[in-house]
Amino acid sequence: MTTWIHVPGKLISGHGVASGQGGDPRFPGGTIRMQRPAFKALGLDLSRYFPGTLNISIHPQQYSIQQAKYTFKQVKWADHAPPEDFSFFDCWLMLESAQRIPGLIYYPHPETKPEHFQDGATLEVITEFIDGLSYGMGMGIELDQSQIRVWLL
Fold first, then answer.
1. Which residues, in sequence order, are CB contacts of 63 under 8 Å at separation 6+?
2. For 4-152, which CATH class?
3. Model pTM?
4. Is-contact 5 52, C-beta < 8 A?
5. Sign of the four-CA dihedral 65, 66, 69, 72
6. What's the CA gap between 110 and 86, in Å, rounded?
7. How does pLDDT run along the chain (153 residues), one tens digit per residue?
8. Residue 19: which residues within 8 A CB-CB, separation 6 or more?
9. Could you say which DSSP state residue 149 is in?
10. Contact predicate 70/87, CB 8 Å
11. Phi, psi of 50 (to 5 degrees)
């Protein structure tokens, strides 16, 4: 049974690596665009989503992983990067305009990720392109408590 919890959040700036906006020449077009074929081959088609992530801070809360919807181990997605483990979790973004937009929490496992780490209060969300977003704006995120737990720091 799915039990959703609504968590307030704020859109914050990320490293710019997932979308390619950070300009890292190792990841032309961004890591998400580079990883899509590997995920598709494993059964997760991300083509309907924007090839980048929204970084949402849920501070002063943080989260812990319970049971991912998808987990992929030892994904080799770039010649110059070691294989990584990834998990994905269901979520809904709730915008101030009352829009409810489906997405996935994108979670590269820190123990296999070589760089660009997030803190325990930041969720990376893959979703469709959303016009009019700006850093600092508030938005809610709904999480399936069987997949991710949230608590106050």
1. 120, 121, 123, 143, 148, 149, 150, 151
2. mainly beta
3. 0.91
4. no
5. positive
6. 9
7. 778 999 999 999 886 678 767 667 777 788 899 999 999 999 999 999 999 999 999 999 999 999 999 999 999 998 888 899 999 999 999 998 778 999 999 999 988 866 555 678 999 999 999 999 999 999 999 999 999 999 886
8. 30, 32, 50, 51, 52, 53
9. E
10. yes
11. -65, 140
Task: Count the residues in the chain.
Answer: 153
Find tokens 């490293």 and name the residue: 15
DSSP letters, 78-114, are: -TTS--EEEEEEEEEEE-TTS-EEEEEEEEE-TTT--
Q: Residue 148, SS3? A: strand
Cβ atoms 5, 49 nearer than 8 A:
no
The domain locations on the chain are 4-152
Residue 49 has a CB neighbour count (10 Å cut-off) of 19
Separation between Cα atoms, residue 72 and residue 84, nearest integer Å: 8
The rounded distance, in Å, linking the Cα atoms of 23 and 37 is 21
The encoded tokens of residue 153 equal 């720091």
